[in-house]
Design goal:
Order of helices and strands: HHHHHHHHHHHHHHHHHH
Shape: globular
CATH architecture: Up-down Bundle
Number of strands: 0
Strand content: under 5%
CATH superfamily: MFS general substrate transporter like domains
Structural class: mainly alpha
Length: about 425
């Protein structure tokens, strides 16, 4: 690691107010000794076993969310829950992900990144089990626990990729994103058949806890030897605040807007299709298709884009496809649900580039942790209002048209900030 990276990762004995600001953006960084980043305490060394653990972990970061959409009507009927309850249920992931901007960096400093991710996977597994045990409030509580675990992993995995696979950031980001999207596709596509096979939505949702437990075991094996990170030296200079960086805010807004779209689609698109005359099973498959399309795109595009000076053309190009699909939903949602889903799938694959941009706009793993915490903390706070507003607009207007128009405007705005975030600069 370079001297600049070591300097940016050091922390001083700052005033109380300075330290509070740094805590809020997850930027109290440990001092990094010279040598490879993989040798640093608390960082897991890269290798095949770690890559497998990253893939298994990524596969669990969406089923807890995407499995709910196709079964939402049955859940509401069984629990006697209202539309407001459904809106809260689909909003919880974004709120949890916003909180991770603070919690994840603090937890990783105290435990080390490997143990912190292991703890997060344990929390995810527990939440998936709890949320199917009782009534509507237990479902909300279990979902809160599960998505809290996901939120921690969301912030920390980019740091693992930057530190443990420094020469393959684009490739590993693509593999990670492809696995994440594949897991999301499985959650939406397989949950209706699981409901039929197991005789109810509770067993169908609870079954995803098995996959989470497998990922937990794999991660514990892969991260053995990753200990607690060293304490910061008392006399070193503190890192510059990202809160004052225009580029950091551009990346954050770009990440937040694409997340806004993603969580609306995951939470509400199946119901939009069902109301347009699509069967429940087909609506789940269409949502799964959107995630499946992102798998090959995520494997191919990020490694190519990461080697270029600017990722902006890729971000804008994919956004054009997404906007076309959204426009189709606005004008004629039942005309060609398959076509609209394909176009949306291409557009929403920009998520892989959002993660790539976080790594590329930072010079070191320490800066990546800070930027990831800020982008995902504030970005998901912005995204959290999406599903709630989308559902409330539907209840107020009696149709999905206004909700979809708002989503189209958000997508166009995302393209603008994505183009700015993709230019070669550093925070």
């Amino acid at each position: 690691m370079s001297a600049d990276s070591r300097d940016s990762a050091a922390v001083s004995t700052a005033t109380y107010s300075d330290r509070l600001e740094l805590e809020l953006e997850g930027s109290l960084e440990e001092e990094v000794p010279s040598g490879s980043s993989s040798s640093r305490p608390g960082v897991v060394a890269g290798g095949v076993l770690l890559a497998v653990a990253v893939v298994l972990t990524a596969m669990n970061l969406r089923p807890a969310i995407t499995s709910v959409g196709p079964l939402l009507a049955e859940m509401r009927g069984s629990l006697g829950a209202s539309a407001v309850w459904a809106s809260i249920l689909t909003t919880l992931p974004g709120l949890c992900f916003a909180g991770a901007g603070l919690a994840a960096p603090v937890l990783s400093r105290r435990l080390g990144i490997g143990p912190a991710i292991g703890l997060a996977l344990a929390v995810l597994t527990a939440g998936l089990a709890v949320r199917v045990l009782d009534g509507p409030y237990v479902v909300l509580g279990g979902t809160l626990i599960a998505t809290a675990g996901i939120a921690l992993v969301n912030v920390l995995i980019p740091v693992v990729i930057k530190d443990s696979f420094p020469a393959r950031v684009g490739l590993m980001t693509g593999v990670y994103t492809a696995a994440l999207q594949g897991g999301g596709a499985a959650g939406s596509a397989l949950s209706p058949p699981l409901e039929s096979a197991f005789g109810g939505w509770r067993a169908a949702l609870g079954a995803w806890g098995v996959l989470s437990a497998i990922a937990l075991v794999a991660w514990l094996i892969a991260s053995r030897g990753a200990g607690r990170p060293p304490r910061p030296a008392a006399g070193a200079a503190r890192a510059r605040s990202l809160m004052r960086s225009p580029l950091a805010w551009i990346v954050t807004i770009f990440f937040g807007l694409q997340s806004f779209i993603a969580y609306v689609v995951m939470g509400w698109l199946p119901q939009v299709f069902i109301d347009a005359g699509v069967s429940k099973a087909d609506a789940g498959l269409l949502l799964g298709l959107i995630s499946v399309i992102a798998v090959p795109i995520s494997l191919v595009i990020p490694p190519i884009a990461a080697r270029q000076k600017s990722q902006s053309p890729w971000i804008v190009g994919m956004g054009v496809f997404g906007a076309a699909g959204m426009l189709g939903l606005v004008l004629a949602p039942g005309f060609s649900p398959l076509l609209w889903s394909v176009l949306l799938g291409i557009g929403m694959s920009v998520f892989s580039l959002a993660l790539t941009v976080i790594a590329l706009r930072a010079r070191s793993g320490a800066e990546t942790a800070r930027l990831s915490g800020m982008a995902q903390g504030f970005g998901y706070l912005l995204a959290a209002v999406g599903p709630f507003v989308f559902g409330l607009l539907h209840d107020a207007t009696g149709s999905w048209t206004v909700s979809l128009i708002v989503l189209l405007v958000v997508m166009l705005t995302q393209m603008v900030f994505g183009a700015l975030a993709g230019r070669r600069r550093f925070v």
